[in-house]
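cron nightly-structures :: item 1 of 1
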Amino acid sequence: MIAFCADAIGIRDDMYLGAGNAYMREVGVALDDGFAQGVLPQRPAIVNLQCDIDHPTQSMADLAWLQEHFGSLEALKGKKIAMTWAYSPSYGKPLSVPQGIIGLMTRFGMDVTLAHPPGYDLIPDVIKVAKKNAKASGGTFRQVESMGEAFQDADIVYPKSWAPYQVMQQRTELLRASNYDGLKALEKQCLTQNAKHQDWHCTEDMMKLTKDGQALYMHCLPADISGVSCVAGEVQDTVFERYRIATYKEASWKPYIIAAMILARKYAKPAAVLAQLLTDAQPRVR
């Protein structure tokens, strides 16, 4: 998907592992050349709406929501966030959300715990970035193979399904070859594998393991809600309903994040621009 506006190009390319982020960078080089050659009157910003490596608009919206919920970015230091795989009856969900979360939250001194069943790995380079960020920020990053262990004493939980890194690599090869029979066979194989881990389910009992049983539940939406959108999925219906408004508030930050990206690309000192706008603002109602 490519969405155009006056000052930016928003691109989503999360289907082709190893190609989506590279494609965005190629578009950037082409825009640079178009502006340099006088074809474009200005060089538009590129907003990564989601790619194979990262989902920056989502992860930064999540960070803004955590800042709002806990009061400040400083208050996040030492907080435990459990980014965990969760069962889904569908296949092929991108890696970008969990990768974006572990890559960003480790920059703010948080205790970031990544949990998934064996074989549901993320891109190795992203794991390296998370470890490096945690060391630099004074936080921690660890990996476990138990949802319960990740939830234990967590302040925030983020149960989200994704396809294994190796599977997404195979999927990319099959897509490029237009091998639809191969894609169907891979989907069947993955759904069978997923079904072995239906206990990776954000239930009321699982939530009781969290800090005081009151961890903040997060999701990028839409969630696979057991008994609502599917028979069995990522989260129990009563858990989701309790945090439904919270997840809506989480989601509401995304358009502001995208607008901030555009503003930061257009102006060298965006904070000064905002301050001037506040100074010049006229009351809308007299």
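cron nightly-structures :: done
The chain has two domains: 2-51+253-280, 56-252.
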